[in-house]
């Protein structure tokens, strides 16, 4: 069972993300994040200290110019600073991409479910912009859309994504409702709007190539 939501590195987190990342060993989780150490765009950094306060690994500090700096000997690439930064100063490093992380997640998912019976349920409710692993988040971006289920995790993720893309924006002061002309965002790719440097389609395409399922689906309403 998975909570479907946005994600700052993969675009969204659904069945594949929870299987590939959630079922990985500790060593596997470190491998999945190993190339995603972020960097600081100094010109955008305001020295607000938020990333410093919330880094669980004490890997960020402000230098003499009150600009954030990352100690890569301590950084585990968890991406919390990327999720927290309000000024787009903390960004994914050049050594990793959203596509590469999504490829890894698809491959880990295949290892998890290979030769095993599996059935997947996703809760498309309280669809928050960020991953659930943080102790903070923004307001939900769309109304609760219900629960979806499938034997095919790829089709399930695609169906959930399509439902959210088609849904209207909630008027609750979330990051999308504050966007210009947000009344016209119904039917747009909300995941890319929230996290422009991510590419959620890449994970589904790679999972499909690996034989994990298909992006083609029939939506049956119960």
Can you give a write-up of this model?
By secondary structure, the protein is α+β, with helices and mostly antiparallel strands. It has 2 domains: 2-15 and 116-209, no CATH class; 39-91, Alpha-Beta Plaits (2-Layer Sandwich). Helices cover 31% and strands 13% of the residues. The protein contains 8 helices and 9 strands. The protein has helices at residues 15-20, 26-33, 50-54, 80-84, 98-113, 153-166, 190-194, 200-209, and strands at 2-3, 5-7, 11-13, 39-40, 60-62, 68-70, 90-91, 120-124, 146-150. Strands 1-8-9 form a 3-stranded mixed beta sheet, covered by helices on one side. The protein has a two-stranded antiparallel ribbon with strand order 2-3. β2 (5-7) and β3 form a beta hairpin. α5 packs parallel to α8. The radius of gyration is 18 Å and the shape is globular.
Listing every helix as H and every strand as E from the N terminus to the C terminus, the arrangement reads EEEHHEHEEHEHEEHHH
User: Which segments are poorly predicted (pLDDT under 50) over 5 or more consecutive residues?
Assistant: none
Widest sheet: strand ordering:
1-8-9
Question: Rg, please?
Answer: 18 Å
Helix fraction, binned, reads 25-40%
In whole angstroms, the N-to-C terminal distance is 18 Å
Percent of residues in beta strands? 5-15%
Count of all domains: 2
